[in-house]
Amino acid sequence: MTLALTIFQNKIIACSIYKITVDGNTMVGCNHDAWLTTPKIWFETAKHKNEYGTVFTGSREVSPTRTAPQSGMNTEGLSFSRLTSYYPVQNNPFSNRLKITSEADYLSEILHKCATIKEVKKHIEQYDHSFFLNDVFIYIDSFGDYLIVEPYKLIEGNNPNYVLANFCPSITDNKQARKLERYRNGEDFLRTNKAIATLDFCTTLSDTMSVCRTRNGDGTLITSIFDTKEKIVSLYFYHNFDTLVQYSLTDELSKGDHILNFTEIFPKNSEFERLVSFKTPSNTVELRIFLVILAGLLAVFSFALIISLLWKNKSTFVSPKSVVVISFLNLVLIAYIYVLITNQSIFYFDVPYKHHSSSLISTSSYTPFLLLLSFLPILVYTVNRLKSDKAKFWIKSTLVLNNMVYFILVLGFGYWGLYNFWN
Question: Does residue 352 sit in the same domain as residue 256?
Fold first, then answer.
């Protein structure tokens, strides 16, 4: 039942952002690092008086017709980006504020209605923004002022150069933040290079902060660079900075509301094609369900073998030692299946996987090797039981089916590259 609750998991999204303000011109760069396969850019015209047209980029579909904004800019040069972060739960100080019922509507509304950081702050202070417990937002206006929106706190700033990644500044010191490579790279680049408000400079900085992992070639999905003065958005796709696509916000809004898929506006990207074809429990519901079923079968087989030890008729002919070994391995595999379903990054980071905060999850990454070493001895034991006339048919069937689940898992672990420690 616990595993069944994991079937519908949220996508984990990592990102980074920077802003530079030089001679009154502010440029904003956003790297959207995700394993999602539906990257889009879309334009929304102003629907009411005193509102602004906007452009958004994003990839997480919240409905068949709606994608959650990840980054964006409006015609006043106000831009924003959303980054996954951690903040411990507190007593909610905003319980009497307006409730956020649709994240996409809420995020879109801010850019449609606000032009400056002061307006953004006034707008957000109406709402219970602790709704976004696992996110931190940053809003930057055309003057270079910025507002960081944490679940329980708003932080204003106006540094000419600023870098942010997946952390809340109010609870994370710089030493801890620099453990994030993308943040450290951006901070070091701005420290050693004189900032210039040009596309070339921003492209180099975005590339420096982008991600391209060696194991599967995955990493930064969307790079958006917003020129808040000229109202131009420059795009790069899937950490490839050789091909640039640009849009004038004013020109695109004159065409009305419209959505463009990155796969249609950029040349074919072989690494992205591999991402699309790579099936994991995180991007394939049927696979998650199948893994839950396998975990359930392992639990049933262990229960059956334990019952066999208590059976009055000793002709079940299964040794207590073998039952303990098989049941223990099944329990470890059930736990590991849970880890696989709830930790998407395992399928993309190096083997053995190292979790950022859980040594238990890190240790579990050796489970595929434990199964591989145990499979042959258990298979030999099963064959010996099959040759015996003393073992009952249901015992033989249980052992055979249990080995079949092991074999399926070995194949799955191999497909996902969980044995590829040399990478």
Answer: no
pLDDT of residue 9: 44
- Within a domain: residue 15? yes
Eight-state DSSP code of residue 7: S
- In this structure, what are the phi and psi dihedrals at residue 249, rounded to the nearest 5 degrees? -60, -40
* Helix%, strand%, coil% for the chain, nearest 5: 40, 20, 35
Domain end among 254, 277, 300: 277
Give the N- to C-terminal CA distance of the chain in Å, as an integer: 35
Instruction: Supply the range of the domain harboring residue 157.
Output: 11-277
How many separate helices (H) and strands (E) can be counted in the chain? 13, 16
pLDDT tens profile 365-405: 999 999 999 999 999 999 988 887 777 788 889 999 999 99
Q: 24: left (phi > 0), else alpha (psi -120 to 50), else beta? A: left
> Residue 302, Cβ neighbours under 10 Å: how many?
20
- The pLDDT assigned to 127 comes to 97
Q: Give the pLDDT band of residue 306 (cuts 50, 70, 90).
A: confident
pLDDT at 215: 79
Does 221 share its domain with 297? Answer: no
pLDDT at res. 311: 67
Dihedral angle of Cα 177, 180, 185, 191, to the nearest 10 degrees: 10
| Cα atoms found within 13 Å of the Cα of residue 264, Cβ hemisphere only | 6
Q: In the prediction, which pLDDT does 250 show?
A: 97
Q: Is the pLDDT of residue 344 over 70?
A: yes
> For position 3, what pLDDT does the model report?
47
In a domain, 422, yes or no: no
CA distances from 261 to 14, 178, 249, 422 (A): 21, 34, 17, 36
Strands (E) across 218-357 are located at: 220-227, 232-237, 240-248, 258-261
